[in-house]
Design goal:
By secondary structure, this protein is of the alpha/beta class. The protein has a domain at 30-172: Ribonuclease E inhibitor RraA/RraA-like (Glucose Oxidase, domain 1), CATH 3.50.30. The protein is 30% helix and 28% strand. The strands form 2 sheets. Strands 1, 2, 3, 4, 5, 6, 7, 10 and 11 form a 9-stranded mixed β-sheet that branches. It has a two-stranded antiparallel sheet with strand order 8-9. The longest helix is centred in the C-terminal third of the chain and has 23 residues, at 177-199.
């Protein structure tokens, strides 16, 4: 991971997807990956630069399905656009094993995965539209790597910042990372003060009104 990648990832230390999502809303940015769910209730937040992959229906003869993983750097998040297909998988136990050995941070798929016991047993973070056992070999092939893709209606460009946890996945445009992280921290600070007021015995209505909760995520 480059020094700039490390700097951008560090901006999101201690944040989670709800906070980043609120910041995206406040700034008028899209980025929430609709329908992409965590394989497990992960306790840690994954943050990393996107390594994007786009699959298409296989040609004749069919092309490759997974060798791109050799080019993924430690700490990257593999982001796979399989056009939301749920009839065949693009990630299984061999990919999970290799990704874990290379310290790849996670995999996000607009599509499905298989061999979930391996991923769960290894604690390798997967975020997908579901699970299905049928192979993608001879059904899909890699069309492009590190070109823009769509994941759950969110656009993802190579090296955008991916934030993923038990709530789902959000994408932060690389050139807005500083702004989004700062906004998320500002929103979280207000919410922390609201929680403190509740601990002091204030009602929820009083605490929210005192700190402007209802306009926290409002654009502008």
């Amino acid at each position: 991971m480059s020094p700039q990648d490390q700097e951008l990832v560090a901006l999101f230390a201690g944040l989670d997807t709800p906070g980043v999502s609120d910041a995206l809303d406040k700034l008028g940015l899209p980025g929430q990956c609709l329908g992409i769910m965590p394989l497990d209730n992960y306790r840690q937040v994954v943050v990393g630069p996107a390594f994007t992959v786009r699959y298409v229906s296989a040609s004749t003869p069919p092309g490759t399905v997974g060798d791109f993983v050799d080019d993924v750097a430690e700490g990257d998040v593999v982001v796979i656009d399989n056009d939301g297909r749920t009839d065949c998988t693009v990630w299984g136990d061999i990919m999970t094993q290799y990704a874990g050995s290379q310290r790849i941070a996670a995999t996000v798929i607009d599509g499905v995965c298989r061999d979930v016991s391996k991923a769960l047993g290894d604690g390798y973070p997967l975020f997908t539209k579901g699970r299905f056992m049928r192979t993608g070999k001879d059904r899909v092939e890699v069309a492009s790597v590190n070109q823009p893709v769509s994941i759950g209606q969110a656009r993802v460009c190579a090296r955008d910042i991916v934030v993923a946890d038990a709530n789902g996945v959000v994408i932060v445009p690389r050139d807005r990372a500083h702004e989004v992280a700062a906004c998320a921290r500002s929103i979280e600070a207000v919410e922390a003060r609201i929680r403190a007021l509740l601990d002091e015995g204030k009602s929820l209505r009083e605490a929210r009104a005192a700190l402007g909760y209802h306009t926290l995520q409002r654009k502008g």
